[in-house]
Amino acid sequence: MTLTAAPLDGYKFTGWSGACTGSDTTCTVTMSLNRTVIAKFAALKKYTLKVIKAKGGSVAGSDEEERAVINCGGSETSCSKTYYEGSVGTVTLTATPDAGYKFLGWSKPCSGTGTCTVTVSSSKTITPRFSALKSYTLKVVLGPKSGGSVTSSDGNLANCSGKSPCKGTAAYLEGDDTKVTLTAVPANGKTFYKWTGTSCNNTTEATCELTMNKSQSVKAMFR
Description:
Strand content: over 45%
Order of helices and strands: EEEEEEEEEEEEEEEEEEEEEEE
CATH class of the largest domain: Mainly Beta
Helix content: under 10%
Mean pLDDT: 93
Number of helices: 0
Shape: rod-shaped
Structural class: mainly beta
Radius of gyration: 34 Å
Strand order of the largest sheet: 8-7-6-10-12
């Protein structure tokens, strides 16, 4: 009689005792008398890769066959993948920041701000770090406020005429380095004579170009 040991998922066959010996999964028994055979199994060790869900972005992970195994962020909650002993997996993680956020990097064993490839030969926990982008505002002061108006090339200044100060209707985000051209338009009977503040200080041309990599205040002077 030939016996075959077949472990269930999550288990391994460790060997025979009694009338069979060794660790081969098959054993041949000659039934010339009553015999007792014991097949021994043990649970496989589990190794889990866990990604901590973080505000400001998401993490996707794919295995060596490019199958999605991690999808963690927002409403997606597939933040871990478990492998059994003997079937070590390799997972490549990619972090994607949400709008208005930037990716700062990974916790160990990952590093840097690129993708991270992890060999899951032991349990590992990895945390992505995201941070809200700084926002910058543009404010324009008219001197005097009845002297004219100012327009912006991106349309961010709304109705900057007859009131002071005028503030942009939207913020500029860190890293965009948006270039904005301001144009001073004098009212009837008035003339524009200079800008004050920031990089256009004391410039007498009617246009002023700014790079919005910080909050700025500009004054348009009329007389």
